[in-house]
């Protein structure tokens, strides 16, 4: 196993390499390619999928939230290697779809990588990954009920994406932003629950 990606550009390059080698890219291929640092990317990627237009597909946010919870629980318990059940690992996407998504993401990824890198690194080590994992679990649990409201899952998923990015690039400032986004997401979720009740 490799140490895995340390930037969004690394994620895109890794995915592109997988897509160029085969007709379909399975989640198992991604986990193996990311290696020991799978936790950050596999919190980030499902959250970004939810935020994208694809996330409006009915039921998909709940599935993505379930994957996030599965990943975050293992991170919270301090596992070194990510385990996923076979039926999830075998899920795959056509390589041409992966390549198309990568091409669209290159410019935003390059911009993000210029800004997100290694500030306040101590906030991404020690107990902080487990704190982030617990926050991601709480946020992901809020997704299924929020899915009934248009775009309501964006707030918790944005916070989860920030946690995943912070862990992946070792950026404590992004971790602080993630915590703030989590607080906002809880507030938004509470407000929507009250007003829609």
Mind explaining what this structure looks like?
The protein has 197 residues and is mainly alpha-helical. Helix content is 69%, strand content 3%. It has ten helices and two strands; from the N terminus they run αβααααβααααα. A two-stranded antiparallel sheet has the order 1-2. Helix 1 crosses helix 2, helix 1 (8-21) packs antiparallel against helix 6 (95-115) and helix 3 (39-51) runs antiparallel to helix 9. It is globular, with a radius of gyration of 16 Å. The model has no long low-confidence stretch (mean pLDDT 84).
Short description:
Helix content is 69%, strand content 3%.
Fold topology:
Layout lengths: L7 H14 L2 E3 H8 L4 H13 L8 H17 L9 H4 L2 E3 H21 L12 H14 L1 H4 L7 H16 L2 H25 L1
Antiparallel strand pairs: 1-2
Strand content: under 5%
Runs in which pLDDT lies below 50 for 5 or more consecutive residues are: none
Helix content: 55-70%
**Whole-angstrom Rg:** 16 Å
Return the average pLDDT rounded to an integer. Answer: 84
Shape label: globular
Structural class designation: mainly alpha
* Number of helical segments with 4 or more residues: 10
N to C succession of SSEs: HEHHHHEHHHHH
Strand adjacency order, main sheet: 1-2
* Largest sheet report: 2 strands, antiparallel
What is the terminal-to-terminal distance? 48 Å
Q: What's the β-strand tally? A: 2
């Amino acid at each position: 196993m490799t140490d895995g990606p340390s930037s969004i550009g690394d994620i895109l390059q890794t995915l592109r390499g997988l897509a160029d080698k085969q007709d379909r890219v399975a989640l198992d291929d991604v986990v193996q390619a990311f290696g020991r640092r799978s936790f950050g990317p596999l919190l980030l990627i499902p959250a970004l999928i939810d935020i994208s237009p694809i996330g409006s597909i009915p039921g998909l946010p709940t599935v993505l939230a379930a994957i996030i919870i599965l990943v975050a629980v293992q991170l919270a318990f301090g596992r070194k290697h990510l385990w996923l059940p076979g039926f999830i690992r075998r899920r795959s996407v056509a390589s041409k779809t992966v390549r198309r998504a990568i091409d669209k993401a290159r410019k935003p990824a390059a911009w993000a990588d210029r800004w997100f890198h290694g500030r306040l690194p101590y906030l991404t080590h020690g107990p902080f990954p487990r704190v982030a994992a617990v926050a991601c679990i709480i946020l992901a649990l809020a997704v299924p009920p929020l899915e009934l409201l248009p775009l309501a899952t964006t707030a918790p998923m944005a916070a989860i994406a920030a946690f995943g990015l912070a862990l992946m690039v070792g950026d404590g400032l992004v971790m602080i932003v993630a915590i703030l986004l989590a607080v906002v997401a809880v507030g938004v979720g509470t407000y929507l629950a009250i007003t829609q009740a």
